[in-house]
S9 family peptidase (Ferirhizobium litorale), 705 residues
Amino acid sequence: MPIFHKLPAAPVASKKPVEDTRHGITRVDDYGWMRADNWQAMFKDPSILDPEIRKHLEAENAYMNVAMEDTRDLQKTLFAEMKGRIKEDDSSVPVKDGPFAYGTFFVTGGEQPRYFRIPRDADRMDESQRQLLLDGDKEAEGKAYFRLSGIDHTTDHSRGIWGYDDKGSEYYTLKVRDLATGEDLDDVIENSGGGGVWAPDGKSFFYTLQDENHRPSKIFHHILGQPQSSDRLVYEEKDPGFFMGVGGSLLDDFIYIDIHDHETSEYRLLSTSDLTAEPKLVFRRDPGTEYSMTEGGDVFYILTNADGAKDFKIMEAPVDNPGKENWREVVAHKPGTLILNHMAYARHLVWLQRRNGLPEIVIRDRVSGEEHAIAFDEEAYSLGLQGAAEYDTDVIRFTYSSMTTPSQLYDYDMATRERTLLKTQEVPSGHNPDDYVTRRVFAPAWDGETVPVTLLYRKDVALDGSAPCLLYGYGAYGITIPAGFNTNCLSLADRGFVYAIAHVRGGKDKGFDWYENGKMDKKTNTFKDFIAAADYLNQQKFTSYANIIAEGGSAGGMLMGAIANMAPEKFAGIIAAVPFVDVLNTMLDDTLPLTPPEWPEWGNPIHSKEEYDWIASYSPYDNVGAKPYPPVLALGGLTDPRVTYWEPAKWVARLREKTTGDAPILLKTNMDAGHGGASGRFQRLEEIAFEYAFAIKVAGKMPAA
């Protein structure tokens, strides 16, 4: 019996051909009209969306609802399972900072976090000593979408900056709260990038402003009590190809201005001893050279790939003259050992590195130079380095988990090497790690490389090719998908699925080379690696082509679009969340928020015919062909500034037009959210339950009626 049956006619998008000629090549886009001319304004006020576009998106949602109607009970069951694995009234272990320790907690049924502080050495579970600083549920009342950017306190702990986005468009409003009274001051900052950095005296702060094209192009200094219009412009980045952020040092001595794209960076420093001064350049941007800084008292520690250190090294330079001519090597470059980030404290230098595909934390005594590492023995695992909020400390914090081991939070004394387990993630509905298997296997790629694949499945699953599989991939920006604990995917594993993560090129899973060989002219390696992972899982009978549902989001959604065109017969279904599928059109539109900063990742098709040809060869929207496609579920967000709603909408229209098969092509647009989907913790679970229900339905594993 067909998986999808008795469906009404799918929406048919109008065709309004628009020609575009670049480098002597003319393309016709029949569905370009879905891009709203007023998209910048619409992100701030979705009600002004063109009625024709809204009508089409709503028709798609209605069709999707009919197609997924028989999964409603399954979605509710999945949601209940996932919710049952979450400790609803959970609280974090507060982080010590001066006289207080700061943390978050949730209440039963609550969607949003609540921020609190307690006396430094008080019991975090002693609610009588908790001071509530910010109630996310209260602030979110009456809003369809609401996301907090956190709260950052002054050095004297008297005030806090907090921010929120209530559209999903990532334009944040900042407010200042008196932490003693809980009242907000009159200061309001609109259209910020999400947070602020206090000056040491607590009377002013620095923030980034998003411009009309949604780029953080300016940094301002705001003095409390003054209107935003009078804020001083500290620095303006004129190159639209660079992102920009502002941060502060643990010692409160410097404000960092971090300017970067995907392969080049530049820092400017503002000494907090003179907030009116011009920021000083550290090392002028040099294409391909990256560096980041952390303060270590009288020196800066600088993590960089300068001078051929592809997997990065750590340098130091004097605080009063940190230019590149004064950099001195502290931690040498070791090919194959990728240093990911670094932190400095009064007596120790700490960094997180990836070696042999696995993370480890390394600690160096700043006086003796002695080093030691923190690592674990599982075949695949995830480590997170949280560090500390204070500079003069020997204690840092880190997290550990694996696909079968719930997250564990540790304090670690760098001097005594003593680990203290602070918290183990609770799974209220129960979890027995011994019921599951996690493995790291390697799939042969087309060119002799091997692609790491992390697997999770129940011990009792028959590995004879009959098991359904959800195969997840990303593969961009050097982002490594961790092999960490995920309570949600247990709902698939418990239904006999093999849950797999393909660590394809484009990430840094096997070092910096792994990233470089999955970008620009080598981008198709990402797609071939994912298909190689599917081939291996089929050959080794972990699953079979007829049972593999592929999933990826954002740049991973581009991966989904590409593999749909390249090997549709190898996948039973495809889930593409906020998919970057209209790559060529987007990279040709330099008004879009992320286009200029993305050119070093994908190529600049405006200026280069060669780079135009690269992108045109794989851009999923441009390569949809007359072939049978498997069932596809595409998900978008109306106010998404990263992957605009029209990308999945256009892609679905073209897939439906071109496919020679009868499998449904579905589009679900969240009309109240952006790139990250729903903002509440349980609302997000509802979205995951919907995606998993599609996978279960496509796999033919629907429960009996």
